[in-house]
Fold:
Amino acid sequence: MRRVVGAVLSVLSVLVLAGCGVRPTGVVAAGEPASGLTKGLRLYFVSESGRLEGAPRPGQEIREPVHVIKLLMSPSESEKRSGLTTLVSGGTWEVTGAGDRLTVRAPDRVLDPASVQDRNLAGQLVCSLARARSVLDESGRTRPDDVRVTVVFVAGGGELGPHVCSDFLT
Structure:
């Protein structure tokens, strides 16, 4: 009798589990992989469409924010193949400031406030320097969005800012 009851319970268990209504599915497209705040240095270049785009530079070490200027002058081959270019060119650049305030002085440039190119140049500087400042903060308290950067065009006497990076990413 026990064998019969055990066999009946086993058959019922299999039927209940098999008939619970859950059907197998195939691969479900869910979009891009999850992403969030990135860590490390990020440089900003100008895309073919004229917008600023961030390019991560994992493992790139810098000691001072001004070191970012030299990196901005030469996008990597991968960044170039992605259609990214730079508006930052040679000359003597100076970055001063502390905490969440920086000033960058651009040599030999005349500011045209109506120029999209000058706005993108300022955006490259503001966003890349803000990110660098955040990376260099050993306490980890400085967020890139908290850093305000003033761009001074020495030759023309123009000044932009202080700005935060989000001012240029809209």
